[in-house]
């Protein structure tokens, strides 16, 4: 993650770049003074603004995920704390899951919740709507590294 933008840096179907600094400021997750301090330190020490904020406990990974999720108007799922069972992970074909950075996080009678780093991906939504026909597909935001960690199954 960079301080300026967050990007999954991979193939088609991945998350768009996100202006994390703007999201954090607009959501009042950090003050303008804290952001200025983080920018100054990050420039001098060659780290990202987000790395600085996390290292100084000015921001937690959960709050960062929540802030990014809010910018997409979806929920945040911390997959490093709430990992779905292997059977859930395998319900989305591996090629689709890896290409679109998606994992089935929850499923009940009429709704499937899919964690992805790009909740605005219409192509993924259409694929999942076909795969889970008859169910409502709901997206939640998750960090790319947490999604990828689940593909070791």
Summarize the structure.
The protein has helices at 20-26, 32-45, 49-55, 61-72, 86-89, 94-100, 122-131, 144-149, and strands at residues 75-76, 102-107, 111-116, 136-141. The protein has 153 residues and is an alpha/beta fold. The protein folds into two domains: 20-73; 76-152, 2-Layer Sandwich (GMP Synthetase, Chain A, domain 3), CATH 3.30.300.160.
Please describe what this structure looks like:
The protein is an alpha/beta fold and 153 residues long. The protein folds into 2 domains: 20-73; 76-152, GMP Synthetase, Chain A, domain 3 (2-Layer Sandwich). 44% of the residues lie in helices and 13% in strands. The chain contains 8 helices and 4 strands; from the N terminus they run ααααβααββαβα. α2 (32-45) crosses α3. Mean pLDDT is 88; it is low at 1-14.
Please render the helix and strand layout as text.
Elements: H1 20-26, H2 32-45, H3 49-55, H4 61-72, E1 75-76, H5 86-89, H6 94-100, E2 102-107, E3 111-116, H7 122-131, E4 136-141, H8 144-149
Parallel strand pairs: 1-4, 3-4
Antiparallel strand pairs: 2-3
Q: Please identify the structural class as seen in this structure.
A: alpha/beta
| Structural domain tally | 2
CATH topology-level name of the largest domain: GMP Synthetase, Chain A, domain 3
Strand content: 5-15%
CATH superfamily of the largest domain: Type II secretion system, protein E, N-terminal domain
Radius of gyration: 16 Å
Mean pLDDT: 88
Q: Tell me what the CATH architecture of the largest domain is.
A: 2-Layer Sandwich
């Amino acid at each position: 993650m960079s301080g300026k933008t967050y990007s999954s840096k991979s193939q088609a179907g991945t998350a768009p770049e996100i202006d994390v600094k703007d999201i954090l400021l607009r959501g009042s997750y950090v003050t303008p003074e804290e952001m200025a301090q983080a920018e100054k330190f990050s420039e001098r020490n060659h780290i990202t603004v987000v790395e600085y904020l996390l290292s100084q406990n000015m921001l937690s990974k959960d709050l960062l995920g929540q802030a990014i999720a809010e910018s997409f108007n979806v929920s945040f799922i911390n997959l490093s704390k709430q990992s779905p069972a292997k059977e859930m992970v395998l319900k989305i074909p591996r090629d689709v899951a890896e290409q679109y950075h998606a994992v089935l996080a929850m499923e009940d009678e009429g709704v499937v919740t899919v964690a992805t780093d790009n909740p605005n991906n219409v192509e993924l939504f259409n694929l999942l709507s076909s795969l889970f026909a008859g169910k409502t597909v709901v997206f939640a935001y998750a960090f790319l590294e947490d999604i990828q960690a689940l593909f070791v199954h």
